[in-house]
Write a structure and sequence with these properties.
heterodimer, A: 197 residues, alpha+beta, two-stranded antiparallel sheet, 6 strands, globular, B: 434 residues, mainly alpha, 2 domains, 2 strands, disordered N terminus
Chain lengths: 197, 434
């Protein structure tokens, strides 16, 4: 009898697995993120699974980047006291001077980034091209994500594991457009891992 | 009239300004010789490790059952529990575990959109399946939480019977609460209050560390406190092992009532033989059973009534409800202190009415589920009272099916076991039989 009971429940649970849908992975909605810094500290991993990403197609390549420079900077140099990033994870590279304007490219060094979102908060003053994502080579997919628990905007949600990333709505339009060009393999690779909204 | 028009005009201007501000991002420059890159995101780690865990769980369960039932080897069981502690505890850091998988099953049932991993289903069902046939051999040597407490159970005192009965109801209450919180998507109580995950990770928040280490300290004197008085999964295992076709026995063959094993179980899970009741005892027992049977619907009803009062307090743990209450207090001017959540809420410009509606519907869910929890607890109490009023009829010293974790500590104390091992010739070598 007990055996039948357990077998029955097993069959029930297996049947209850919502068809052939993918298993879930944690992700945060960058449109809801406020850059509160909890991501850097709340994760159960010593080094948070949350990292910053740059959506270059949304970036203004500003000279005075509000995501890169501390609002109280001394000088527009790469010296640590001028930078917003506590670990110096944003790499600033000069690209071109056009019509008297100097343009810089800002790239995130994934290994150095701690996911604190300070740059996200700063960038949100302008274009908001920097955004946080849970990186799935690091995330151990806890039952109850410790960051989700402490997220003030409840920005965390479960996504299908095949497409465990989210773009800002605006960025999604841009990247989808970009990926139409068959030469843009990186954009295609990115959009394939993104759950679209 | 004029003033109103003015307000509307101002509003329109504001909306236009806001709209243009949102639309006018600084354009991405058109570089002469620099393509705009795209950031890459890493792929998902493979699920291979999960299936390794499932395979190890199956192997460990088979070994534990074999060593508990066939070879009756306490030493092997102990070594296996150390191995489980190493792998499921310190290597896998307490995740994935069947105790927590209970919540995933609850979520799979009640949360639309949640897809339970196959490994979680197997982790939940496999130990139950084994318990339904062989008793709690999972607890004996496979569960890392059990293993920690098994190792630290050095000086166990006997918990008074009445206290043991009362405390053993807690796991069922905990189970009910954990299911409710998982079903509403509020919290994963079992994971949040996992006692030893902080030890396994050597990392964790203050709650976890304090709770875990006090549980460990308590375990020095009270054998397996988490397993016996808290573990919600152990509650299910205990019920299933009542029906087990094969359950571990203290003697290898027959009990000679020598009483040597009477006090050796650190978990208080050995039941003595029942004495023959006198006719007055029988009559009194019947009267008691009749009263309990008649009163049990009342008990359930009382707890259900209690449950109607619990919806409010329980829903306060839900982040949406918390936020709604905070916003309400701020709107009414009852508090000047804003929280991170309320600031974020205002910055997101989400309509307040929508938040209130969501909070109210969540509160209503909790009201319904709290009554269900009340009924569940009432049923558990009623069943406990009925089982206490029933006279067990047994002639031997037997492990209590609910509480016995098949750890095999008692085997060694049985003279018949020593005969089986060839250490002595007759029971009289050890004990004088009456």
């Amino acid at each position: 009898m007990a055996g039948a009971l357990v077998f029955g429940s097993l069959a029930g649970f297996l049947g209850g697995r919502k068809g052939k849908a993918d298993e879930n992975r944690w992700q945060l909605d960058p449109d809801k993120c406020m850059g509160c810094s909890n991501c850097a500290t709340a994760c159960v991993l010593d080094e948070s699974a949350v990292k910053c990403l740059q959506c270059f197609d949304m970036c203004g390549y500003c000279d005075i980047c509000t995501g890169y420079f501390d609002p109280n900077y001394n000088a527009l140099t790469t010296a640590a006291e001028n930078q917003m990033c506590p670990t110096g994870a944003i790499i600033r590279n000069f690209v071109e001077e056009k019509a008297g304007q100097r343009f810089y490219e800002y790239t995130i060094d994934e290994k150095t980034c701690i996911g604190c979102g300070k740059c996200v908060k700063g960038c949100a003053l302008m274009n908001g091209s920097l955004y946080l994502q849970v990186m799935h080579d690091r995330c151990v997919n806890c039952n109850e994500c410790a960051i989700a628990q402490s997220c003030p905007t409840q920005a965390f949600l479960r996504l299908p594991s095949e497409k465990p990333y989210l773009l800002k709505k605006l960025a999604q339009t841009l990247i989808v457009n970009k990926a139409r060009d068959p030469k843009q393999t990186e954009a295609r690779a990115l959009i394939n891992k993104v759950t679209r909204r | 009239m004029n003033g109103r028009n003015g307000t509307i005009a101002l509003g329109v201007v504001l909306v236009l300004l806001l709209g243009s501000a949102l639309a006018e991002l600084i354009p991405t420059p058109d570089f002469s010789n620099h393509p705009i890159p795209t950031a890459a995101v890493p792929g998902t780690t493979s699920a291979a490790r999960e299936y390794l865990d499932v395979a190890l769980l199956a192997v460990a369960l088979v070994l534990a059952t074999y060593w508990a039932h066939r070879t009756r080897s306490r030493r092997n069981l102990f070594l296996l529990s150390l191995a489980s502690l190493f792998w499921f505890g310190f290597v896998r850091q307490g995740c994935i575990c069947p105790i927590g998988a209970t919540q995933n099953v609850a979520m799979a049932v009640w949360q639309p959109g949640y897809v339970i991993p196959l490994s979680a289903v197997i982790f939940f069902v496999l130990p139950l399946l084994v318990a339904a046939f062989f008793g709690r051999t999972f607890c004996a040597a496979v569960c890392p939480l059990g293993a920690v407490q098994e190792v630290t159970a050095v000086r166990s005192v006997r918990v008074p019977r009445w206290l043991d009965h009362v405390l053993s109801l807690i796991p069922f209450v905990y189970l009910g609460a954990a299911v409710i919180f998982a079903a509403t998507g509020t919290a994963m109580l079992i994971c949040r209050y996992d006692p030893f995950v902080a030890l396994f990770r050597w990392n964790g928040n203050a709650n976890m560390v304090i709770f875990g280490f006090s549980m460990l300290a308590l375990g020095l004197f009270v054998g397996r406190p988490y397993c016996r008085f808290l573990c919600p999964y152990g509650a299910i295992l205990g019920v299933l092992s009542k029906f087990a076709r094969w359950h571990v026995r203290i003697p290898p063959d027959r009990c000679i009532n020598c009483r040597l094993c009477e006090d050796v179980c650190p978990y208080g899970a050995i039941d003595p033989p029942s004495s023959a009741p006198s006719p007055t005892d029988v009559a009194r027992g019947r009267r008691q059973l009749a009263i309990v049977l008649l009163a049990s619907p009342l008990v359930v009803l009382c707890f259900a009534a209690l449950g109607t009062q619990l919806g409010g307090p329980l829903s306060k743990l839900d982040p949406e409800v918390q936020l709604a209450e905070q916003i309400r207090r701020e709107e009414l001017g009852l508090t000047k202190i804003t929280t991170d959540a309320s600031e974020a809420f205002r910055a997101a410009r989400r309509p307040v009415a929508e938040l209130y509606a969501a909070a109210v519907s969540q509160r209503e869910r909790f009201d319904r589920l709290a009554v269900a929890l009340g009924i569940w607890v009432g049923l558990v109490v009623a069943v406990k009272l009925i089982s206490l009023s029933m006279r067990s009829r047994q002639s031997d010293y037997e492990p209590n099916r609910n509480g016995c974790v098949s750890c095999g500590r008692c085997y060694w104390y049985c003279p018949n076991e020593q005969i089986r091992l060839g250490l002595i010739q007759t029971p009289e070598d050890l004990v004088k039989l009456q």
